[in-house]
């Protein structure tokens, strides 16, 4: 795909909480359909940082980078890249994300984005999407288990956010029956993510098993609406409850992260009243833009806090 013409590029040196950062190509268009530039993306992340950073702290971050914008190629990056500043906190963890060595003893060195300077450094590398595990690391970088469970509601062909909202109400009931309080977040793409905090950290295998149990239970009781099967052919007109994102090696886009969608959409915490409205009305809930996400934080604070 041909790249859209870019305006003259600039760079600036800025002080971010005592760290000097070189921010480059600020006029580069990263979202061609809206003309949104890298500078505007950096501004969004700087402004959303007070509510975003608490949800990244202690979690290894996988970045998806679009060096030439969302109309071009992207790539996943787990390890901290060459040239990572020495002040960026990192954690060397097994590839499984579980305590102890993986089967082959392989490890990854993830950045931990726990301060504004680190966030700006990552975004300056065109990391539009920030994905995190459900498990955390301690002060020494050792995995301590999952502190939350997540179920990704992914609509199949013929279904959308409206159907996801209806199914989310069912998932909420299933979680409540297990004394778990669900918190909804739009995915910023097509569906919804439901999170439930845990009283104590659990191994990812246990949270995966619990999420799978819930997904299969709802598939049995509401097979016309729900599937727990990853096969795409079986998702048509239904909502896939992706329980697998609780596995030690899997990640989910962080609340308040941008997505690499045609327009700059954000994974945004919502209320259950909004989810219920989305279930009642096909136009009752939509994905949110950067500006809308910032406006919501100004109005409601951090709904995911």
UniProtKB/TrEMBL annotation:
One of its GO terms (molecular function) is ligase activity. Residues 37-304 form the DNA ligase D polymerase domain. Keywords: Ligase. The keyword Signal does not apply. NCBIfam families: ligD_pol (TIGR02778). This is ATP-dependent DNA ligase.
